[in-house]
Structures are given as structure tokens and as C-alpha cells.
Write a structure and sequence with these properties.
Elements: E1 14-15, H1 26-41, E2 45-48, E3 57-60, H2 64-67
Antiparallel strand pairs: 1-3, 2-3
Length: 71
């Protein structure tokens, strides 16, 4: 079956791994990661990773860049 995952809107930065339970299926993690990439492309999400293999920190992006045609 199809799984859905509603992501809440966070005002504070969140660590990517904290979005999932420890036993999350790989398909779910990959799907959310792909959606994250799309949101980054649209400037709706900013991502920070301070070192290789470090935690991925998600913050809100600048959606106004999309509205003004910046890319």
C-alpha cells in the first residue's frame, strides 16, 4: 500500500533523523529526502550539514525568492 507522512510545520530548526522512528522503512526516508531536495530547489527549505556524515539540520527557506522569479 501507499504510505503517507504528513510533516508538521516547524518554527525551529529540526534534525532530519528526528523526523523518523528508528525503524523507518528505507523507502519512506528516501521519499522524504527527495521531497526535501525539491523544497530546497524552490527555496522553501534550507539545509545545513556542518561536516561529512554529520546531522542534517532543516530550517525554513525563503519562499519569496520563488514568488519573485529568482532561482
Amino acid at each position: 500500500g501507499v504510505q503517507t507522512c504528513a510533516l508538521p510545520i516547524y518554527k525551529e530548526p529540526i534534525i532530519f533523523e528526528d523526523l523518523f522512528p528508528k525503524n523507518a522503512e528505507v523507502e519512506l526516508v528516501v521519499t522524504i529526502f527527495m521531497a526535501m531536495l525539491e523544497l530546497m530547489k524552490r527555496h522553501e527549505l534550507k539545509v545545513l550539514q556542518e561536516k561529512n556524515f554529520g546531522s542534517i539540520i532543516l530550517t525554513g527557506g525563503d519562499a519569496s525568492a520563488v514568488e519573485s522569479g529568482e532561482d
